Amino acid sequence: xxxxxxxxxxxxxxxxxxxxGHFTPRQKEICRKVGxxxxxxxxxVSPSYTFLHGDYRQDNFIYLRGGDEAVTMDWQISGKGRAxxxxxxxxxxxxxxxxxRRIEKDLVRKYVxxxxxxxxxxYDFETAWNDYRVxxxxxxxxxxxxxxxxxLANERGRxxxxxxxxxxxxxxxxxxxxxxxx
Length: 182
Hints:
This protein is mainly alpha-helical. The protein has eight helices and four strands, in the order αααββββααααα. It has helices at 2-18, 25-36, 38-43, 85-94, 97-117, 125-138, 141-149, 155-175; strands at residues 49-52, 61-63, 70-72, 79-82. Strands 1-4 form a two-stranded antiparallel sheet. Strands 2-3 form a two-stranded antiparallel ribbon. α1 crosses α7 and α7 packs antiparallel against α8 (155-175). The chain is globular and about 45 Å long.
């Protein structure tokens, strides 16, 4: 409720106004419905919990010289949360859309396999995929908040906000995630 009332809600209309060209009329309606149904959305996600980073995105990785191995930083909002949140947030906002379309199901499947290999049971791919689709709506909190509060003179911030917003809205469109909204 606090996220909806004090973060998402106040940022929504300013985000739509400032980034008008990044929303279709349908996407504006989806974003408004997400605001109205924010609490109900999280209740549609399975009650499976894990430890979460909370801001798991490319900007919070440092890659070791000469390799693909990364160190994750910025753990200030980590804690217990819905199992698929970090993977959803990473995939729907950090990956280029064409790459995401090719690998998102495999990434969610691999995530579930890793959980199972680590002793987590009772969380299967179908549940995780449903959670992923619902959480793409929930993850709008990040780009909407950034877009609604951004100083438009900050060029790097604007580029990041546009990227996050376009990618997140793209997933919602591609996967028909608005079916979870009443």
